[in-house]
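Suppose a classmate hands you a notebook page containing two proteins, each written out with its sequence and a corresponding row of C-alpha cells. How would you begin to make sense of it? This section walks through that situation. The first entry is reproduced here exactly as it would appear on such a page.
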Amino acid sequence: MPAITAIYAHHVLHGLASFELVPPDVNEMARRRAEVLARGLPHLVAEAGGELAGYAYAAPYRERPAYRYALEDSVYVHPEYIGRGIGRALLEALIEACTAAGCRQLIAVIGDSGNAGSIGVHAACGFVRTGLQPSVGFKFGRWVDSVFMQKALGESDRTSPQATPERDKEQGSS
C-alpha cells in the first residue's frame, strides 16, 4: 500500500488525472482498496524492475441500482514508467476482469482534455469518446475539463444481464 499511495500522491500533486488536491494517506488508500475488493471488483498492480510500476481498479460508476452493470476505471502509473506500456497492460487486464465479472460498460472519466496519454491508451483499448464536461474542475490555478470515454463489455446491451443476488443486493434499491 505505501507504493500505491506514493504513485497516487504523485498524480494528485503533479497531474490532472485526479481532481483531489491533497493526497490521501496510506490508511485511506487501504480503505479504498478494501472497498473495491469487498465488492468483488478488480484492483490490479503491475511490477517492473522489482518495484510497483502502476495500479488499476474498477469501481461502480454510480451508486443507483440501474447503474449496477457499469463500472468506472482508474489507472495510475509510476512516473518513471509512464510511456512504457504499463498503463495499457493494466487497462487491458482490467477490461478482461470487468468483463469476467459480468459488467457491461466500462467508463473512463479522464481529467484534462489535454491528457493525450490517457485518452490515447483508452482509445487504443477500444474506448470511444462519449462526452466532455468543460471546466468542471479547478486545479493548479486553472479550469480543467473531464473527458468521458466508454467501452462496451461482453454482450453489452445486446442481451439482458443475468441478475445475480450479489450484484442486485450490492446496489440496493435506491
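The notebook's second entry, a different protein, reads as follows.
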Amino acid sequence: MTPANLLIIMSDQHNRRMLGSYGNRIVATPNLDRLAMRGALFENAYTPCPVCVPARAAFATGKYVHQIGTWDNAMPYDGSIPSWHHLLRERGHHVVSVGKLHFRSKDRDNGFSDEQIGMHIIDGEGDLLGLVRDEDMPKRGGSYKMARMAGPGESMYTTYDREIAARAQVWLRHEAGKNTQRPWIMFLSFVCPHFPLTAPPEHFYRYYDHELPLPKLYERRHEPLHPYLEDYRKSFAYDEFFETPDMVKRAQAGYLGLCSFLDENIGKVLAALEAAGLADNTRVIYTSDHGDNLGARGLWGKSTMYEESVAVPLIVAGPELPASVRAATPVSLLDLYPFIMASVGAASPETVTPSHPGRCITNVLAAPQRDRVVFSEYHGMGSKTAAYMVRKERHKLVHYVDYEPQLFDLESDPEELADLARKPGAKLTLEDLTAELHRICDPDEVNRRARRDQQQLLARVGGKEFVIKRGDLGFSPPPGMPAQFS
C-alpha cells in the first residue's frame, strides 16, 4: 500500500448487528453505511476479549490477553509493552488520540504524540470488584443502572462524545495539514453506545415511538442457562431491574438511539475530513472494542462468547482498498496491528513475529481463508472460570476450564440456539477445535496464571472485604467527572 494518513474510529460496546450495513432494518446508521459502501466490511470480526480494558490493551499491542496479562478491568495497559502508537511515534509519525483509552493513566507514556481528553480507569485502579471470582462472588450493586437510566436525555457519556467529536473536527481542520513529512494517525475513540442507555431525545424517540421486537429468547429468560452464564447473570443482575415490558423497550430504544447518535458524530468527523481536503489521502477504520448482549436470553452487557458480545463491526475504506466488498474470512482486532503499520508505510518485522498473531487485513482481502482460526478469551468480572472462543469455518467452540464446552454451527444456526457439544456427531469437530485452542495456549495454565495474578492484586489493594465495601462502579466516568460507586 502507498503510505496514507489513517483515521481509526473505535466505539464502545457496539453490537455488530446494530448497523444498517450489517443487515439491520431498524437502526439508522447512514454515515457508517456509506463508509461500508466505499470500503470493505468484515462479516466475521471478533474482539480478543469481550470486555473493555483487556480488549483495548490487546488492540494496542497486537497480542492476546494471555500474552500480556491484562486479564480484566483492573489490569490495564500501562505503556510498558510497545504498542503500534509507540512504534509509529518513534518513526516520526504524529499520532493523536482523542477520547476513551481505558489505559492505566494519562500520566503514563501511552505512546501518543498528543493525547486529548483521554478516559482511563478510575484512580489508576479500575474495577477492583472484578478481581473477586470465587464461589462467593458478590452481586453487582450498580446493576440497576442498566434499566433505570434508560430513556431520553443526556448523560455524562453523550456529553463526552460530543466533545470528542468536536475536538476531532478541530484537529482535522487546523492541525492535520501541518503534518506533511509522514502520514499522521488519529485514534478517535467514542464511548457510546456503552450504557447508560440514555440517548438524546431525537434519537431515542426515533425507536421508542415504534414497535420493537423483544430481545432474542427474552421470553425464556428465566430458564436455566449454561453454568458460566448463570454465574454472570447472578453477579451482573441487570435483568432483575427490568420490571415491565416498557422498561425493556426503553433500554432497546436507548441503545439504538445511542447507535444513531454515534453515527451522527462519526458523520461530523468524516465531513470535517472531507472539508479539510484530506479524504483522498486518508484511510478510515471503524470498529468497536466488543459487542453487547442487549437483552438476548435475558443477558445485558458483555462478557460472554455469544456473537452479540464477542463479535464486532469492522469496516475499512480509503485509497487502494476495495469498495463495496463483504469479506467472510474470520478476522480479529489483532489483525489491525499490522494493517495500521503497513497503511502508513511503517510495516516492520515487529508486526509479523510469532508473538504477534495478527494477519494484515489487506492480505486477508487478497487471499480469503475460510478455515482461518480466530480466538478470544475472558478472565474477568462476573466469571468463575476462564472462557475461550475458537472460531473456524462454520463452527465456534466455547471452552470453559471448569464447565462443559459449547459448540455452535454458525452457518445453519447463526443465532446460536442449538448447542451441539453433546451431540454424537460433534466429537470430531470438538476435537479439532480443542486442538486449535491448545495450539494457541494451554487453557488450564492460562486460567491458573490469571487467577494467581488477580489474587495477588486483590491482596495488594486491601483484600476481598475491602473491594466489596468499596462497591460497584457500574461504568467509568469521563475525565473530570466523579466516580459513582453503588
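A careful reader of the second entry would note: The longest strand covers residues 185-193.
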